[in-house]
Amino acid sequence: MKKLKLTKVIASALVVASVLMLNPIGANAEWKHNLAGWWYAEGDSWATGWSEIDGKWYHFNSRGYMEHDKTIDGYYLDSSGAWKEVMTTNENLKFDKSTGTIVGYSGVNTVVNIPSEIDGISVTSIGSGAFSTDNSSAKIESITIPNSVTSIGESAFEWDSNLKAISIPESVKK
C-alpha cells in the first residue's frame, strides 16, 4: 500500500513539473512611452538607476524615465538612451567619434577653443548639456566654436554663469 502511495506522489510530482516546464512563467518586461518619455516596465514596477537591457546599458531617473543626450556618473548616454563609449581629448573634451559630437567637458580651463577636427574626424555638433555645469566643474568664461559645427544641442551651456563670451559661427544652423 505504501508503495502505491509513493508511486502516486512521484507521478503527481512529474505531472506538475511537466506542466511548469511546458508553461514557463515569463517576466513581463517591455519598453513603454508617453509624452514625458520612455521607461522600461518590469512587471508592476519600472526600472530606476542603471539597467542592462538587451546587452546595452541605460539609466532611468527616480521617476523611471530613461535619460538621454547627457552624461551621468561619467558615462555618456546618446539620443537612444544607451551608454556610448566616448574618447577624451588632450583638451579634456569628451568626443563621440561615431557622430562627430562634443558630448562633455572635464577640464578646468576658463577659455575653451573647440578644434574643427579630432583624430581626423570633423567636429560637427555640440551635444545637449555638453558644457552645462552638471557635466563640468570648470568655470568657463569663453568658448570658441569652429566653422565645422552645424548644430548645438539643447541646454549645451546651461547654468554656465561664468560664461561671458561665446563665438558661434554662421555654419551653426540648429
Task: Throw out a few tags for this protein.
18 strands, single chain, Cell_wall/Cho-bd_repeat, three-stranded antiparallel beta sheet, 1 helix, mainly beta, five-stranded mixed beta sheet, repeat, 174 residues
Commentary on this structure:
There is one protein chain. The protein has 174 residues and is mostly beta strands. It contains 1 helix and 18 strands. The strands form 6 sheets. The chain has a 5-stranded mixed β-sheet with strand order 9-10-11-15-17, with no helix packed on it. It has a 3-stranded antiparallel β-sheet with strand order 1-2-3, with no helix packed on it. It is elongated, with a radius of gyration of 25 Å. The N and C termini lie far apart (85 Å).
